[in-house]
Design brief:
The complex is a heterodimer. By secondary structure, chain A is an alpha/beta fold. Helices cover 41% and strands 14% of the residues of chain A. In chain A, strands 12-10-9-8-7-6-14-15-16 form a nine-stranded mixed β-sheet, sandwiched between helices. In chain A, helix 4 links the parallel strand 6 and strand 7. In chain A, helix 4 packs parallel to helix 5, helix 11 runs parallel beside helix 17 and helix 12 packs across helix 18. Chain A starts with 18 loop residues before the first strand and ends with a helix. The model of chain A has no long low-confidence stretch (mean pLDDT 92). By secondary structure, chain B is an alpha/beta fold. Chain B is built from eleven helices and 17 strands. In chain B, strands 1-8-7-3-4-5-6-2 form an eight-stranded mixed β-sheet, covered by helices on one side. The chains are: A alpha/beta, B alpha/beta. The interface between A and B is medium-sized, with 33 and 35 residues.
Chain lengths: 486, 387
């Protein structure tokens, strides 16, 4: 090199002049740690390098120094862009909070033709009008929906089986559309249904109004029928017929499915994934049972712990990664939520994994009787006689009464994971969230005792699994990168 | 390779001037006054042009008008090209209507001193170029599709640089404008705001980022603190909604952390409009620093693949420029662009019989002349040729 150019050493900072930026760490194996910063970026270090790092002895020529500076764990005093970028990424992560409530759940009836063991709320008798939402209640609820400042509004019809009160679904859709001619929101509708009672007429209405269908598929026919008993024991066949019809009329992309992991599902992860592929789905949500409603009453929630579920999850994920490597694009949504926080600056605002928690700000539930709940889980808790997370009633309370209620605000205040005991020190906190309803239900405490928390065990297990896979398998990491950006 | 600058055989010009050329003998009189007539062989000499260009042994215009005689190196000149002629016989081609790669070199001064600069900076004051460009832009055909503004570092001229952008917007409103800058001037939020306020309808600035490691970038551009200013410049430009392209020259000093750089861009600058990953051009400083810079592209093909995969996963548009198809992995093909400027690209003897030559950008003339990968080999034809 000619003399007018200076060598690379001349551009390295002076030793010991770097500043530490906020980060947390967690041991990985015997002699390594993983570091995370507040925007969810991470890297691995040897223990002794961590010691050098915090005592300002890490040499600028060290490869780890370069990685730490590039990922904003340290900075030189003159690095202004570092702080600008950290601030920008933090703002981006939190930006969706400002939009407030997006998802509005309308429980249009508690009646259902299914009698699932793990169901939290449904009433089997299909003819009891007393569990249906009335037009008056729907009107009051819609008043509140359009008070949300969010430019995007999603109304999801739930039950019970919402198709059993389809006239009210029609009523709400038409009313909401009418109001939206003035409101001009990005308005979307979803019906959560087993599809067992779907008719051509219902589908035609859904097509005309662009309504999406969210349905349930628990696995192969025997498992599905066992999880979802109904008269005739034909839930799976009804689902298969309904799915075909719905896709014919609404289009492939307008129908999605969710699964619930029952104790009987645990040894059958692969078969469940195969069932999804067979029905032409390109994603699955490996969803654990929630500890509410009948799930607790019937003890099915206690039928397995986080450890057993994690075994199921890992088996499913190993298979799903293998599928992707073989060219079958297939996404697992629960992992995607966590991976998004690991690999991007976006927070997908998944209700159970937000900090502060999603209660009321990500989703709100209007029950058939007009009661308003902070989440679907909150109303299930109320069915068990615990009204902690009931925010009010559409007939007696104003928007301000409900959304500025102590019931909501104190939960939100207590659910910043970054300031919760133990979470505040946890390196995985930037990828996790708070679930106050779960901890209240299982431990009688909104914050929860993390060492005893099944939620914490589950999250730690998932996160460690995802980290290990990405580290050991660059191809899997590439696949995850495509998941989080789709 | 085209000769864009050289000496005339003789000239009758008494003062320096810019001319737009025409070969149309019967142009309406008002238009003739604004053109130089490009003569080709024998034929009548039309009246009324202020200047004539003749080649080699062609006869001189019989009407006694001022003319400049060029040798065959300039035979490529054609209608609507713009040349600068000096009374000393110096000829510079400033615009070629047949090319999609016209650019204006606004200054040779620069506040970086990149190891591989293809246009080594000079210290002398060359602000006179700004005045020439003020004349040049209104002379360009309004149908021009694209135009580059390069340097040196064109933003060093501050308000004059912004004036030129404004002039391009006024005279060439449908011409896509591409500025090459190191981005450091835009770290000044006021300058970035003024640049955005020009509100040019089709303006992109291409800014090099060579590493996610500030020290490495600073070393490549030989300027401490450059990385920090460049990144803040990009952030300011995007804050004001400007189109930004990140340009990475891949060589021995940058290839190792190329995948990390792609992740850095995905995590911190995901909102940029385009990322260009470019091969080394064997010009300027590169030849002086060849030992420090040269690496056979085949040796970094896996890093290139990894970087392209990351950027594509994050849906950041990415292109691979200045590479030969036989030196990249097949998975990079989707980002491959046959990019080398029309007056620069050539092929080497090893390319003979290659089945994919038409898809390949080939080489810069400088690469052919000063060295290229020993790994170049022709793609076989799938079927034997049938006579």
């Amino acid at each position: 090199m000619t003399e007018k150019f200076l060598p690379v050493q001349d551009y390295l900072p002076d030793s010991g002049t770097y500043e530490l930026l906020p980060f947390k760490f967690e041991p990985v194996g015997a002699d390594e740690v993983i570091l995370t910063n507040l925007t969810g970026e991470f890297l691995y270090l040897k223990r002794e390098k961590l010691d050098s790092l915090v005592s300002h002895r890490l040499a600028p020529s060290d490869a780890d120094y370069r990685a730490l500076r590039a990922r904003h764990f340290i900075r030189q005093p003159n690095d202004r862009a570092t702080l600008d970028l950290l601030a920008l990424k933090t703002r981006t992560r939190l930006s969706r909070l400002a939009n407030f409530t997006n998802l509005h759940l309308f429980v249009v009836t508690l009646r259902c033709d299914h009698a699932c063991h793990y169901c939290q709320v449904s009433r089997q008798s299909e003819d009891r009008q007393s569990f249906d939402m009335s037009e008056e209640t729907a009107d009051r609820a819609l008043d509140l929906v359009f008070r949300s400042p969010n430019p995007a509004i999603k109304i999801e019809f739930q039950g019970g089986e919402p198709l059993l009160n389809f006239p009210l679904v029609r009523y709400v859709v038409e009313k909401a559309e009418q109001r939206n001619r003035v409101e001009r929101r990005d308005l979307q509708f979803v019906v959560a249904t087993t599809l067992s009672m779907v008719t051509d007429e219902i589908l035609e209405f859904c097509r005309v109004h662009g309504i999406h269908i969210s349905t349930s598929l628990d696995g192969p026919e025997d498992l599905h029928n066992r999880n979802r008993p109904r008269p005739g024991r034909d839930s799976h066949r009804k689902f298969t017929d309904g799915l075909k019809k719905a896709r014919d009329v609404l289009g492939y992309d307008a129908v999605s499915a969710v699964m619930t992991t029952s104790p009987a599902s645990l040894p059958r992860a692969r078969e469940i994934v195969d069932e999804y592929i067979e029905h032409g789905f390109d994603s699955i949500f490996l969803r654990p049972l929630s500890p509410y409603g009948f799930a607790i009453k019937t003890k099915s929630y206690q039928a397995y712990d986080a450890g057993s579920w994690l075994e199921f999850y890992r088996a499913g994920m190993d298979y799903i990664i293998d599928l992707n490597k073989r060219g079958v694009r297939f996404v697992e949504h629960y992992s995607s939520v966590i991976l998004k926080k690991m690999l991007t600056n976006d927070d997908p605002m998944f209700v159970d994994l937000m900090s502060p928690c999603g209660a009321g700000i990500s989703a709100v539930v209007f029950n058939y009787d007009g009661d308003v709940y902070a989440s679907d889980e909150s109303r299930m808790l109320n069915e068990m006689g615990d009204a902690t997370f009931k925010l009010g009633n559409v007939h007696s309370d104003s928007y301000r009464d409900i959304f500025a209620s102590d019931a909501l605000l104190s939960v939100l205040e207590d659910s910043f994971a970054s300031s919760a005991p133990m979470c505040s020190d946890c390196a995985f906190e930037p990828w996790c969230g708070a679930d106050p309803v779960f901890h209240h239900a299982t431990q009688g405490d909104i914050l929860g005792r993390k060492p005893e928390s099944e939620f914490c065990k589950r999250m730690m297990g998932m996160i460690r699994y995802l980290l290990d896979v990405m580290r050991a398998d660059p191809q899997a990491k590439s696949i995850f990168m495509t998941w989080v950006n789709s | 390779m085209l000769t864009l600058s050289g000496s005339a055989l003789e000239t009758g010009l008494t003062a320096p001037a810019l001319f737009r050329l025409t070969t149309v003998p019967d142009l309406p009189a008002p238009l003739r006054a604004q053109r130089a007539f490009l003569m080709r062989g024998l034929g009548d000499v039309p009246e009324g042009y202020p200047h004539y260009l003749v080649f080699d042994r062609d006869p001189i215009p019989a009407n006694g008008a001022a003319f400049t005689r060029l040798d065959e190196k300039f035979a490529y000149l054609s209608d609507d090209d713009i040349v600068h002629l000096s009374p000393h016989g110096h000829v510079r081609t400033l615009f070629r209507s047949a090319s999609n790669h016209n650019s204006i070199l606004l200054t040779e001064q620069c506040n970086n001193y990149c190891l591989m600069c293809s246009q080594p900076p000079k210290r002398k004051d060359d602000r006179w170029i700004v005045d020439e460009v003020r004349q040049l832009v209104p002379m360009m055909p309004r149908t021009t599709k694209s135009l580059g503004i390069t340097g040196g570092e064109p933003t060093l001229f501050g308000d004059d640089f912004l004036d030129i952008i404004r002039l391009c917007k006024s005279w060439l409103p449908t011409t896509a404008l591409h500025v090459l800058s190191n981005g450091r001037s835009f770290a000044d939020v006021g300058f970035a705001r003024n640049y955005a306020a020009v509100d040019h309808p089709a303006l992109t600035v291409g800014i090099p980022v060579y590493s996610d490691d500030p020290s490495r970038h600073d070393y490549v551009v030989q300027e401490k603190g450059a990385f920090d200013e460049t990144i803040r410049g990009i952030l300011n430009l995007k804050r004001f909604g400007q189109r930004v392209e990140i340009r990475v020259v891949v060589h021995k000093q940058t290839f190792e952390r190329l995948p990390e750089l792609a992740e850095f861009i995905a995590r911190n600058l995901v909102f940029v409009d385009h990322v260009a990953l470019m091969g080394l051009e064997m010009m300027g400083f590169t030849r002086a620093n060849l030992d420090a810079l040269w690496i056979d592209p085949i040796e970094y093909r896996d890093e290139l693949s990894a970087a392209v995969a990351v950027l594509r996963a994050y849906r950041i548009p990415v292109s691979v420029y200045n590479h030969q198809l036989c030196l990249i992995n097949p998975d990079v093909g989707i980002a491959y662009v046959k990019s080398i400027s029309d007056w620069k690209n050539e092929y080497v003897p090893e390319c003979d019989g290659c089945a994919r030559r038409d898809e390949c950008g080939g080489f810069f003339s400088s690469g052919v002349k000063h060295g290229y990968s020993p790994s170049i080999k022709p793609f076989p034809h799938r079927h034997p040729a049938v006579d």
